[in-house]
Amino acid sequence: MKLFIYHTPELTPTDKTPDCAIVVDVLRATSTIATVLASGGEAVQAFSNLDQLIAVSENWPPEKRLRAGERGGAKVTGFELGNSPLDCTPEVVKGRRLFISTTNGTRALQRVQDSPIVLAAALINRATVVKFLLEKQPEIVWIVGSGWEGSFSLEDTVCAGAIAHSVLAQSQISPAELAGNDEVISAIALYAQWQNDLLGLFHHASHGQRLLRLESHEDLKYCAQTDILDVLPIQQEPGVL
Ligand code: 3SL
How far is 190 from 75, CA to CA, in rounded Å? Predict the structure, then answer.
């Protein structure tokens, strides 16, 4: 297995696809997606464009759908949900399809949707994603951070590092064998430094601070937990997990 980490979707090569692409948006899209599926949601369908989301979801029975949207961290007017994983309880999402559009996370999913395997990962489902990698052994793996509007984000990089760190801990692969680019080594170092205080790291992150200004402290706490959900969000068809 060769692992490449890209801090933003824009940094991924445009002329190739990996055997497995793992999209990460810890704050908060992939944490929300994992939570919806763990809570019994029928599926999550991701859109980068709000008008498209509205048009496609119109064809779905109202009692079987939920529209979730976030722009700039705030809920999209008229949608049932924003992008808080804490709203995605079984009472709310069970048996329903979540149609979601967020600023960065759904854009990252769209960027890699032609890869044969596409996963959504966050810290909360890290162990399940790692188990999948160790069982399937895809040759070329990309972890794609969503970042924030084209720039690096600490929380996605530390999650990428957490995945790589766990792959190394559970296999015979050496860091040099695993690392396809330098980003892998630096993400592992970031995780090694902060693994016992991920919430503290989120407080340093620009998007963490943005969410704190929006009074989403509980979201930060939830998303900073590691390995609490045994769920593997895996793409079934382009854009649908
Ligand atoms: O950018 C995104 O995709 C979102 O996850 C951002 S937010 O956490 O909902 O503000």
Answer: 31
64: number of Cβ within 10 Å: 10
pLDDT of 100 higher than 90 = yes
Q: Which one-letter amino acid corresponds to residue 118?
A: V
Atom of ligand 1 nearest to the CA of 84: 9
Q: Where are the beta strands (DSSP E) in 26-79?
A: 43-46, 65-71, 74-75
Taking the C-alpha atoms of residue 38 and residue 35, their distance in angstroms, rounded to an integer, is: 5
In the chain, how many H helices and how many E strands?
11, 8
Q: Is 4 exposed, middle or buried (0-12, 13-18, 19+ CB in 10 A)?
A: buried
The stretch 156-174 carries a mean pLDDT of 97
Q: How far is CA 61 from the centre of its chain?
A: 27
Q: For residues 192 and 171, what is the distance between their CA atoms, to the nearest angstrom?
A: 17
Q: Answer whether residue 24 shows pLDDT above 80.
A: yes
Q: What are phi and psi of 3, to 5 degrees?
A: -110, 130
ipTM given for this complex:
0.91
pLDDT tens digit sequence for 186-206? 999 999 999 999 999 999 999
26 CA → ligand 1 middle, Å: 8
Under 8 Å CB-to-CB from 39, ≥6 apart: which residues? 88, 89, 90, 92, 93, 94
Which residue's alpha carbon is at the smallest distance from atom 7 of ligand 1?
Answer: 73
Enumerate residues lining ligand 1, CB below 6 A. Answer: 25, 27-29, 70, 73, 83, 102-105, 146, 211
CA distances from 218 to 8, 214, 221 (A): 25, 11, 5
Q: Which atom of ligand 1 is nearest to the CA of 148?
A: 1
- Please say if the pLDDT value at position 48 is more than 90: no
